[in-house]
Amino acid sequence: MTPHSNITRRVASNQHAGRLIVTMSRILLSVAAVFLALLAGAAIWSNRHPEIAPVEQAGGAEFDTAQLLHGEALTGIGACEVCHTAPGGTPFAGGLALPTPFGTIYSTNITPDVETGIGSWSEEAFRRAMREGVDRNGRHLYPVFPYDHFTKVTDEDIRAIYAHLTTLEPVEYKPPENELGFPFNFRMLLAGWKLLFLDKGEFQPDSQWGEEWNRGAYLAEGLGHCGACHSPRNMFGAVMQAAAYDGGEAEDWHAPALNKMSRTPIPWKQLQLVNYLYDGWDEEHGIAAGPMAPVVNHLYDQSEDDIFAIAAYFESIQRRRLNDSEKNAILERARSLDWGTEFGYRPAVVPDDPALLRGMDVFADQCATCHKSGNVQVPVSLALTGTVNAPDPRNVIHVIFDGIRPPRGALQRSMPGFGASISDSEINDLLKFIRWHFTDLPPWQDISGQVAAKRAHW
Ligand code: HEC
Ligand code: HEC
Ligand code: HEC
Fold first, then answer.
1. Per-residue b/e over 183-218, b at no fewer than 16 CB within 10 Å?
2. Whose CA is nearest to atom 37 of ligand 1?
């Protein structure tokens, strides 16, 4: 049998498995929808949301400068602009397509345009949207808008955000209609969803912890909505609270665990989290790429106190500790795995598997120019990064294909993309090699399927 037909068969069987999974999840989703519909009935019965009367023009002179500046900073922590801006579109005017397992949802226009934006929304209507996920007309909003987190924001902060939004230039723009299949196009279902999964109400401080920790928890759990990406979701698309920060999904990237399940060899200390969240880079953990980059770009403008607070919170939920000698052993090992500087360097342990050997050659040819010890612009030792230690290879695949456009605070640390210059089979071998060489973890599963999936959308 030729290698070619082998690959064709592999692809065919993957497609078959893929179709099966799609069919199964359709069935599960339909069962889920019927269940939600029943609950929705109960919820609507007990809890109706009337329209809130329109105002002539939102905002006005009643907000002072301090409030407006505070509101501007808060919209950064909430990353409102990231979701409410279409590619090439006006900031906050909406129209970004957000794919979900249920279909595509478009973000709305939140500039103060009266016809197409939130220009006719009173503060009360805005607060209700943030707290309960209901629009001014009384329609339920989809939880892609992370109101399950924003519900924790204080009245005062919601007011400041509202104030800031009303000072934006009104933009007349109507985003495309959502593309949701039956029955998910019925917003009524969300009444049932909320009954099950929406825990409404402001953040409650935990008196066991100090002020900094509580500030951090408030920002992370509320506006920062870190768990929207970093926590797993159930089949209804709701964050699983019992598994909070165990790792989740973000635009086909893996959002790593931020609790004791974190896979970075060196546990995150507060100061390292500050480096990462502010500048998008830490020398013992690596860089913020993909969907984390815009989050970090907005945190760049925040006050140091707030970033230290968020970092204090996440250091505390890690609950992993190393003593100095354990940590030094990890750093020493990482250094020993780094590529040497001399010409024709080969690692101490050379693989005997032909695929690993081919992968090693690709690494030596394409990657070792930068990823080697003694390089002036030393990238972090790959052995230390969350990406190479992650449970699946997706983030490394994205980085190899597209390269890295570093966050604002790490500007010089860019990496070119190789999607056009390295073939899929070379990338498969390269991934195998990287995992084998830089970690002691089991090999990644289904590398070729994941690379093919990336290529198909590239
Ligand atoms: C993860 C993406 C995401 C983020 C972050 C986000 N939104 Fe949204 N937002 C959406 C989507 C999508 C909708 C539309 C939901 C729907 O159609 O049911 C929406 C709807 C809204 C609405 C309702 C508007 C209307 O016309 O119905 C308001 C108000 C709003 N967002 C404000 C904000 C603010 C303020 C922030 C930042 C604090 C923010 N959003 C952050 C995705 C997001
Ligand atoms: C839009 C989704 C999204 C949001 C919101 C988000 N993250 Fe992330 N985060 C990611 C992704 C994806 C990665 C992986 C990036 C990479 O591999 O370069 C990541 C990486 C990280 C890492 C590095 C983890 C590791 O082990 O390497 C930390 C720390 C982190 N995020 C903290 C936060 C905090 C704190 C917040 C809230 C303020 C937050 N994130 C909000 C998607 C998100
Ligand atoms: C021109 C220099 C350059 C080349 C060539 C290069 N990289 Fe990078 N790479 C970087 C920089 C800079 C970073 C980001 C800084 C950091 O991680 O410290 C990076 C980051 C990465 C990361 C993310 C690490 C993290 O922090 O999570 C991976 C994975 C990676 N590179 C793999 C590769 C692979 C595989 C190749 C070869 C196909 C390659 N790189 C080629 C410069 C380069």
1. bbeebebbbbbbbebbeeeebeeeeeeeebbbbbbb
2. 80
Of 200-214, 294-308, 343-357, the poorest mean pLDDT is in 343-357
Q: How far apart are alpha carbons 260 and 99 in whole angstroms? A: 29
Q: How far is CA 55 from the centre of its chain?
A: 35
Radius of gyration of the chain (CA): 24
Residue 189 contacts residue 40 (beta carbons within 8 Å): yes
Number of Cβ within 10 Å of residue 360's Cβ equals 23
CA distance 355 to 363: 12
Please check whether residue 67 is in contact with residue 160, taking contact to mean a CB–CB distance below 8 angstroms.
yes
The burial of 156, by beta-carbon neighbours within 10 Å (0-12 exposed, 13-18 middle, 19 or more buried), is given as exposed
- Give first-to-last CA distance, the chain, whole Å: 30
Cβ(72)–Cβ(164) below 8 Å? yes
Using CA atoms, how far apart are residues 51 and 72, in angstroms rounded to an integer? 28
What residue has token string 């690959």?
A: 7
- Single-letter code of the amino acid located at 426: E
Cα 346 to ligand 3 centre (Å): 19
| CA 49 to chain CA centroid, nearest Å | 31
Residue nearest to atom 9 of ligand 2 (CA): 292
CB atoms within 10 A of CB 97: 14
Residue range 404-415, pLDDT digits in tens: 999 999 988 999
The mean per-residue pLDDT over the stretch 94-108 comes to: 94
How far does the centroid of ligand 3 lie from the alpha carbon of residue 386, in Å? 13
Residue type for 418, please? F
- Cα distances (Å, whole numbers) of residue 436 to 285, 430, 442: 19, 10, 8
Instruction: Tell me which residues have their CB closer than 6 angstroms to ligand 3.
Output: 286-287, 366-367, 369-371, 379-380, 382, 385-388, 396, 399-400, 404, 413, 415-416, 418, 430
Side chain identity at residue 299, one-letter code: L
Give the pocket of ligand 1 (CB within 6 Å): 75, 78-80, 82-84, 98, 105, 107-108, 110, 118, 126, 129, 135, 141-142, 144-146, 161, 223
Q: Is the CB of 314 under 6 A from ligand 2?
A: yes
Instruction: Determine the pLDDT at residue 19.
Output: 58
pLDDT at 4 over 50: no
Ligand 1 centre from 107 Cα, in Å? Answer: 6
